[in-house]
Amino acid sequence: MEKLVFTRPRYMKKAPFHYCPGCGHSIIHRLVAEVIDELGIGDKTIGVPPAGCAVLAYDYFDVDMGEAPHGRAAAVATGIKRILPDKIVFTYQGDGDIAAIGTAETIHSANRGENITVIFVNNSCYGMTGGQMAPTTLLGQKSTTTPGGRNKDRDGAPIDLSQMLALTQGAAYIERTAVNSIKNIIKTKKALTKAFKVQMAGIGFSLIEILSPCPTNWKMSTVDACRRIDEEVTQTFPLKVIKDETA
Amino acid sequence: MTVKPKKGRIVIDSRLCKGCYLCISVCPNKCIVISEESNEKGYHPAEFTETKDGKDRACTGCALCACICPDIAIEVYRE
After folding, report:
1. N or C: which end of chain B has fewer CB within 10 A?
2. Does the CB of B20 have a partner CB in chain A at under 8 Å?
3. What are the boundaries of each domain within chain B?
4. How many Cβ atoms sit within 10 Å of the Cβ of residue A44?
5. Rounded to whole angstroms, how far apart are CA atoms A92 and A16?
6. Which residues 165-184 in chain A show a CB within 8 A of chain B?
7. How many CB atoms lie within 10 A of CB A81?
8. What CATH architecture applies to the domain B8-78?
9. How far apart are CA A107 and CA A166, in angstroms?
10. Which class does domain A24-244 fall in?
């Protein structure tokens, strides 16, 4: 007897994604929807999408979604969670959103130990606007605003936001994963499950940074973009549990 | 020589597929190829070889292709 073993998760609408071919966003969307389904929190989850490529995430998630001004997702999520403490609140942000314009909101939310989950998608450039240098762009990486490669003396070194947030008192769980291979996708799903469980237990601020391929702006094939994460991006942003206060 | 029993089968939604080749790169038994025809978006979608020629019975239903598919275009069935 043949059984269906893999299909679209329950909390993902049947809408075609607008993302480029090989984009990591839609893989992460699916993982989040699967985790929400498996934890049985679909009817009480509220998501806050960012400005950036994932701005239309509310078209895809079949849970309640808000929308935040650029970078302010953590502040909006704080408000939602404080008014509705029984709800599970997550933000979904890119690296330009969270590590550039939203640095202040994110750091102070973590420092206050707001009981929210932040999903931080790091593709090391500004994707939606055409591949400009982001705070997380690697040294030497070519972008439209650093055509000769990022220079440490001129542009500064890449910011490791997760490591910065780990220094705050309120952060409970911070992990960095990737979605460039099957192994890393499975690890990412485990990390997301843990982050949502931290929030459900009321322990405090949880953040999962996910390294995601951006073949369009890296000007690579999809397979090469996945390989670049293993070979280059993880040298600057190693995959590991950065902070775990749950034990 | 006995024919190996059929274990798995995938269904690719060609309207959702953007032809990113990721499923092809992870399939351990090379059961997926790129179609010669383009879909309504203008991409050449991935195609399951068994539906093409009906001979290849290598798919085990491991779901690696569906796991990495960025567009949730693949459904996996297993016996």
Report:
1. N
2. yes
3. 8-78
4. 15
5. 19
6. 181-182
7. 22
8. 2-Layer Sandwich (3.30)
9. 10
10. alpha beta
Check if the interface score ipTM surpasses 0.85: yes
- The answer, for A235 touching chain B at a CB cutoff of 8 Å, is no
Give residue A2's pLDDT.
Answer: 84
Q: Which two tokens stand for residue A186?
A: 């499975």
> Residue A102 is encoded by which pair of tokens?
């939203």
Nearest Cα neighbor of B35 from B54, B10, B22, B17 is: B17
pLDDT for B4 equals 55
Spell out the residues 6+ positions from residue A47 whose beta carbon is closer than 8 angstroms to its own. A57, A58, A61, A63, A64, A65, A66, A89, A90, A91, A92
Q: Which residues contact A200 (CB under 8 A, 6 or more apart)?
A: A39, A41, A88
Report the gap between the CA of B51 and the closest CA in chain A (Å).
17
* Residue-level pLDDT at B1: 54
Phi, psi of A200 (to 5 degrees): -65, -30
Closest CA to A35 of A193, A161, A178: A193
Domain borders along chain A are: 24-244
Which residue, chain included where needed, has tokens 């909006």? Answer: A76
Candidate from A4, A21, A221 with C-beta closest to B18: A21
Q: Read off the pLDDT of residues A4-27 as tens digits, 9 standing for 90 and up.
A: 999 999 999 999 999 999 999 999
